[in-house]
Amino acid sequence: MTENSELSCQTAGEGPLVVLLHGLLMSGESWRQSGLISVLSQHYCVACPDLPGHGNSVKSSEAGRYSLREMAADVIAVIDRLGYERAHIIGYSAGGWLATGLLEFYPQRLSSLIIGGWDVVNGLPQGTHGRLSFADFMAYAQETAPEMAASVTEQNKPGLSAFFSSLSQPQQVAASLKQREIPTLFWAGRKDYCYPAVASWAADNDFPLLTAEGDHLAAMLQPDVRVREALCRFIADAQGVRSLTQ
């Protein structure tokens, strides 16, 4: 666990910093399954924090602890603790939402941004009776990803519910994305619920889109070689541009 933040964090490799931000009910360890830690750590220092309420990080029940601003500050504290001024950020699902918070509050600390599995305009999908609730989300998780759903306990459930509540707030980042001069890539599975909206917005606003096969979970946990290589190439290109401008 880092000394200056409440986030537990594992690292691998050396070089420019890449921070991987996981989705709800996952952990930093989830990125190992994707193969990205193995590939990226050959050229970069890869940091995989457990977000608040997850893994080995604190599991506060205080709702304010899970605001976008608070959690963005947690990630910056990890970057500071590791001794870096800037980082490349890859966020997926809830981690993609958190990545937009870093763009909103700490753009000067970003070298590049990859937003995966997240609709920056509409946020979460609608539930069966309107706005998606935490109960709806958990029912879906229990059906489609029972191992992830089993990570919810009486100890961490209040915090995860508060995290979900923050995640459910209206999105306000689309304008910031268009105004910032930070290399940004969108990434989504072809069968993901958010793919049509992500693909449409990226095309309308001239952002690159990396299309993966599979649904929301498979796109992150089981990316094929083509996807892993494309993510690495985007970071390498962004790092090259940054080096030329320093």
Descriptive notes:
- The chain is 43% helix and 17% strand.
- The protein is α/β, with parallel strands linked by helices and 246 residues long.
- The strands form 2 sheets. The chain has a 7-stranded mixed β-sheet with strand order 1-3-2-4-5-8-9, with helices on both faces.
- Strand 8 (184-189), helix 9 and strand 9 (209-212) form a beta-alpha-beta unit.
- Helix 3 (68-81) packs across helix 4.
- The longest helix is centred in the last third of the chain and has 21 residues, at 225-245.
- It is globular.
- It starts with 8 loop residues before the first strand and ends with a helix.
- The model has no long low-confidence stretch (mean pLDDT 92).
Largest beta-sheet characterization: 7 strands, mixed
- Strand tally is 9
- Contiguous uncertain segments of 5+ residues: none
Question: In percent terms, what proportion of residues is strand?
Answer: 15-25%
How would you concisely characterize the structure shown here?
The chain has 246 residues and is α/β, with parallel strands linked by helices.
Which features does this protein show?
7-stranded mixed β-sheet, two-stranded antiparallel ribbon, 43% helix, alpha/beta, single chain, 11 helices, 246 residues, 17% strand
